[in-house]
Specification:
One of its GO terms (biological process) is homophilic cell adhesion via plasma membrane adhesion molecules. By secondary structure, the protein is mostly beta strands. Helix content is 14%, strand content 36%. The chain contains 6 helices and 30 strands. A 5-stranded antiparallel beta sheet has the order 6-5-4-9-10, with no helix packed on it. A 5-stranded mixed beta sheet has the order 12-13-19-18-16, with no helix packed on it. The N terminus is likely disordered.
């Protein structure tokens, strides 16, 4: 618009203000005045249009988001279009359009992905947002040009939608397990806590017996990872010390055999049971396993400090869906005498969670595996399976952590296949012969916290079907001998006649 100058004292101001400008002693030429008048007329023809979008706070996966496009104009509305911007702004994908000319709206997404709802002409609601909805959005508003009524004047605004996802799975495992037990050399134990599905990356830390652990980080995290690299600070008091029970006392080396095992005593040569007036009685496996199951536990012969150093590290692994997998590792020198039955927990903090997620494990040495033999009454020629069904009562939750290593050996000899030992939860003896009757088998369960042995005896009964086949073969042998003699006599008779 054309401005009006302030009049001097006593000067008359014209009503339209234009002649007043002309009387300002050449301060404004007629040409300049024409330019101002043209600009004023153009402004009246085009009108004005401003677009603003309210910022959005971070939202959690599954929530509903409302995108509000606020605009002001004195012109006639043509359309409102919402875009989703991808690939750093190089691609703009239409997601919703409102056509003011026909007063209609429609989505530009496929039917199976249509999730946009029009609330008002300029407001769109996205129900149940996903991680893939994270990113910038733009609202484009168009009005008609007042001068031509054919051209459309556009203005736009943008907003960034931040979608957070809490971790959906956390787990703790022991690294490099199953592993054997070492009696004379110290071992390191590493717990690995894995948190999946978080966006942004969660913060992971460890506790022992409910107290945060003071750790030494052996990685150099970036500035963005400072939150997740902190593993907490433990209280001033030392780790909980536990009184050693009788099973944890050191054994005398003189009581061990050359292989480092405790002596087998009478279980090495089981004997049959005979009663007066009866035939030799072969007891069933059910009666043999119980009295002849021997459990021995062994602990190391070295001592460590009651307050070990814990080393912490973590890694971030980006996923294709935008989430981050975090793996945190806690490593220390294991002391089985103190760490046995210790409770370690992994806690995960995330801005999308109202309280931390937690998973925990209890370190426990094996306490004697429980063995099951199938079939319970093995016969000659059967396939026998000896399986570990669990552990004796005493382990927390009857579970052993870290995962134990199972080793099978035969006392006083080799296994049926000729090997000295086998690993696994099950020992398979195929087509057992009668010679294995009364043989003793040892199952050794061990993890870095300790080792334990369990023995069981195999009783093999006679197989009636195989005995019948053997008798038939024995009966056929004399018949074959008689047939052979008959043929020999016939050949001799023919020979004599020919001569």
């Amino acid at each position: 618009m054309v401005g009006i100058t302030q009049p001097k004292p006593g000067e008359h101001v014209n009503a339209d203000g234009v002649w007043d400008l002309l009387q300002n002693k050449g301060k404004m030429t007629v040409f300049s005045l024409c330019l101002l008048l043209c600009a004023d007329l153009l402004d009246l023809a085009v009108g004005y249009l401003t677009v603003t979008i309210e910022p959005l706070p971070p939202v959690v996966v599954g929530e509903t988001v409302t995108l509000k496009c606020n605009f002001k104009t004195d012109g006639r509305l043509r359309e409102i279009v919402w875009y989703r911007v991808t690939d750093g702004g190089t691609i703009k994908q239409k997601i919703f359009t409102y056509d003011a000319m026909f007063n209609t709206n429609y989505s530009h997404m496929e039917d199976y992905r249509r999730r946009e709802d029009l609330v008002y002409q300029s407001t769109v609601r996205l129900p149940e947002v996903r991680i893939s909805d994270n990113g910038p959005y733009e609202c484009h508003v168009g009005i008609y040009d007042r001068a031509t009524r054919e051209k459309v004047v556009l203005a736009s605004g943008n907003v960034f939608l931040t979608v957070m996802s809490p971790p959906n799975n956390i787990s703790v495992v022991a690294e490099n397990t199953p592993a054997p037990f070492s009696r004379y050399q110290a071992q390191n134990l590493t717990l690995v806590c894995t948190a999946k599905g978080g966006k942004p990356a969660p913060s992971v830390y460890f506790k022992r017996d409910g107290e945060l652990i003071e750790v030494i980080s052996y990685t150099l995290p970036s500035a963005n990872d400072q939150g997740s690299s902190s593993a907490g600070v433990r209280g001033a008091r030392p780790l909980i010390s536990r009184d050693l029970d009788d099973t944890k006392l050191q054994r005398s080396l003189s009581l061990l055999d050359p292989e480092g095992r405790s002596p087998r005593l009478y279980t090495e040569s089981p004997q049959r049971v005979h009663t007066h007036g009866q035939q030799a009685y072969e007891p069933s496996p059910a009666t043999e396993v119980i009295p002849e199951t021997v459990v021995s536990r062994e602990f190391p012969r070295w001592v460590h400090s009651t307050d070990p150093l814990y080393y912490f590290s973590h890694t971030h692994i980006p996923q294709s869906d935008g989430s981050v997998v975090v793996q945190a590792r806690l490593t220390w020198t294991l002391n089985p005498q103190l760490d046995n039955d210790a409770l370690f927990s992994c806690e995960v903090k995330h801005p999308a969670l109202s309280m931390p997620m937690q998973t925990e494990v209890t370190l426990a040495a094996p306490k004697g595996p429980k063995l099951l033999m199938s079939p319970s009454r093995a016969k000659v020629g059967d396939t026998v399976r000896i399986t570990v069904q669990g552990f004796q009562v005493g382990s927390p939750g009857n579970e052993v952590f870290p995962e134990p290593l199972f080793t099978w050996t035969r006392v006083g000899g080799r296994l049926l296949d000729g090997s000295t030992q086998r690993e696994g939860r099950e020992l398979i003896l195929e087509r057992v012969p009668a010679e294995l009757n009364g043989s003793m088998y040892r199952c050794t369960a061990q993890n870095p916290l300790g080792s334990t042995d369990t023995h069981t005896r195999l009783i093999v009964f006679e197989n009636p079907s195989m005995m019948k086949n053997t008798q038939n073969l024995n009966n056929e042998a004399p018949r074959m001998d008689m047939l052979g003699l008959t043929w020999m006599a016939l050949v001799l008779t023919v020979t004599v006649e020919l001569t």
